[in-house]
Amino acid sequence: xxxxxxxxxxxxxxxxxxxxxxxxxxxxxxxxxxxxxxxxxxxxxxxxxxxxxxxxxxxxxxxxxxxxxxxxxxxxxxxxxxxxxxxxxxxxxxxxxxxxxxxxxxxxxxxxxxxxxxxxxxxxxxxxxxxxxxxxxxxxxxxxxxxxx
Length: 149
Fold this sequence. Notes:
Number of domains: 2
CATH topology of the largest domain: Dna Ligase, domain 1
Distance between the termini: 86 Å
Strand order of the largest sheet: 1-2
CATH class of the largest domain: Alpha Beta
Helix content: 55-70%
Strand content: 5-15%
Number of helices: 5
Shape: elongated
Order of helices and strands: HHEHHEH
């Protein structure tokens, strides 16, 4: 008699566990479907915003200068070419390297140089050492020096 009761309780537990498992699977699939639908909606909205931004930027680029003053760049200060010794330390990140170069007035935009290093997969190829750099050098020239090419 006790064997039959224990057997029935065990079978009941297995059935209850199976039911809970399948109910949980159904609810998680439903929530994943909802998240997917929400993500698709967000992507559609972002695509529309991107298209609007691109259209506006094209209109600005096409816009003709309103006066002769727009066509002549202002030269408030003469750009001077700077030549300096620059030391690359071991373990420096592209962000740190770019900020140091900008701080030393060897490049104008640290973010652009950092992106150039990352996009061209130079991050782990930069050699430590001291280099002579000029402020009129382009990113490929600087990277070539740092990579010993």
